[in-house]
Write a structure and sequence with these properties.
With 67 residues, the protein is of the alpha+beta class. It has one domain (4-59). It has helices at residues 4-15, 19-38; strands at residues 46-49, 56-59. Strand 1 and strand 2 (56-59) form a beta hairpin. Helix 1 packs across helix 2 (19-38). 3% of the residues are buried. The model has no long low-confidence stretch (mean pLDDT 83).
Length: 67
């Protein structure tokens, strides 16, 4: 990770944690950010082109009520 050391130093200065613990916290947080960032490619629905070039529409199929 490119900025891990800088972020760890900032966390240590702000929170008073040991630098080693801050490095671990940054690496741990990065795994969550990576996972959620990749969720965009796993959208559950149909993507259809919008009326404008910079817009997209998504159709989600969800149940209404109970049977």
């Amino acid at each position: 990770m490119a900025n891990q050391e800088d972020l760890a130093r900032l966390m240590t200065l702000e929170q008073g944690k040991p630098l080693t613990e801050s490095r671990g916290g940054i690496a741990y947080a990065a795994t969550f950010l990576e996972w959620f960032g990749e969720e965009a490619s796993r959208l559950y629905g149909d993507m259809i082109p919008g009326h404008q070039v910079d817009k997209r529409l998504m159709v989600l199929k969800q149940p209404i009520g109970e049977r």
